[in-house]
C-alpha cells in the first residue's frame, strides 16, 4: 500500500496466474498451453514482420487479420474485433457493455478473471451454482435480461454446453448481452459463432493462445453484431489504438491460414485427452467429461492439495484451486504424449504410496 494508490488499486483483487517456478525444470501441465509447436507458416510470417518495418506503428484496424478471421468463420470483417489476448477482449467487453452497478451472472465455478473485471469496474456479479455434476443449469440463465457470461467449455471444469443450450440462453435474453468465452471450443465443442448472424445480443470470444499454440503472442478476438464490435472499438480507441503489434498481426493472420497445422494439432490434443481419461479412472479418479485441452479430476481418497504438492515435488505442475466444491480437484492440461506418460507414471507411484 502507498499513499499514491488510487481507490481502484487498493480495492482490486488481481487474477492469480498459474505459477511459473524457475527452481528446476518442470513438466508444465498447469496453464493449458498447447504442447505442440507454432505453425511454421506463422513463424515465417513473424520473422518477415520483424525484418519489415517495426519502426512504423501497426495497422490500428488490424484489417488483414480481421479479414482473415472473418473469411475463416464466414462472417463480415466488421463483425470481428481483435484484442491483445482474449483477456483484453473480455476486459473491454465489461467496459463496453456493463455500467457501474449493473448486475451480471455467471457460474460460481468459472474463469476467475470475471470476478476481477467485475470488481475493478464496479459491476455486480451473481454467481449461479453449477449443478452437482458441474454442468451449467441452463434454466437459471433464461429470461433474465441481465448480462450473462459463460465460458464454453467451462473453465476449469471442461464441461461444455451444446449449441442449442447456448441458443436457448441467447434467444431468451434479447435485452441483454450474452458473452460466450470460447477459449477452449476447438477441442471438441461446437462454436456459437453461427448464432451471431441471428442474435444481436451474442458476443463470442476466442483466443490464439490454446488451440493455436500462440499463448506467447497475445491475440484473441470476438465475433458479434457490428454494433457490438463498434462498442469494443470505441473502448479500444479510448485506451490504446495499437494493442496488436506488427509481428502478432502477421503471426495470427498466417496461423488462421494454416488450417492443416491447426487441424492436426488440435486432433492430437483431443486424442491424448481421450487416452488419458481412462488411465486416470483406473487410478480411482473421477474425471469430468471434458471438451477442453485439460481435464478436471478428483481422487477417491487423496486430497487435491496433497496430490498437487506430491506432483510438484516430483517435477510436475498441475493447477489446484483451494476453493469450495473444487478443492479436491486437479486441473491437468493435456501435454504431449510423452509428458502425459511421465505424469501418469508419477501419479501411479503417488497413489500407490497412499494405499
Ligand atoms: C486462457 C483463457 C482465456 C484468455 O486467453 P488469452 O491468452 O488472454 O487469449 C480466456 N478465457 C478462458 C476461460 C481461458 O481459459
From TrEMBL:
Keyword annotations of the record: Amino-acid biosynthesis, Aminotransferase, Histidine biosynthesis, Plasmid, Pyridoxal phosphate, Transferase
Broad enzyme group: transferase
Catalytic activity: L-histidinol phosphate + 2-oxoglutarate = 3-(imidazol-4-yl)-2-oxopropyl phosphate + L-glutamate
Pfam family, one: Aminotran_1_2
Any one GO MF annotation of this record: histidinol-phosphate transaminase activity
N6-(pyridoxal phosphate)lysine carried by residues: 210
Recorded metabolic or biological pathway in which this protein acts: Amino-acid biosynthesis; L-histidine biosynthesis; L-histidine from 5-phospho-alpha-D-ribose 1-diphosphate: step 7/9
Cofactors named for this entry: pyridoxal 5'-phosphate
UniProt GO BP: L-histidine biosynthetic process
Residues covered by the Aminotransferase class I/classII large domain: 25-346
Annotated EC: 2.6.1.9
Family annotation (InterPro entries): Aminotrans_II_pyridoxalP_BS, Aminotransferase_I/II_large, HisP_aminotrans, HistidinolP_aminotransfase, PyrdxlP-dep_Trfase, PyrdxlP-dep_Trfase_major, PyrdxlP-dep_Trfase_small
Family: Belongs to the class-II pyridoxal-phosphate-dependent aminotransferase family. Histidinol-phosphate aminotransferase subfamily.
Assembly and binders: Homodimer.
Name used for this protein in its record: Histidinol-phosphate aminotransferase
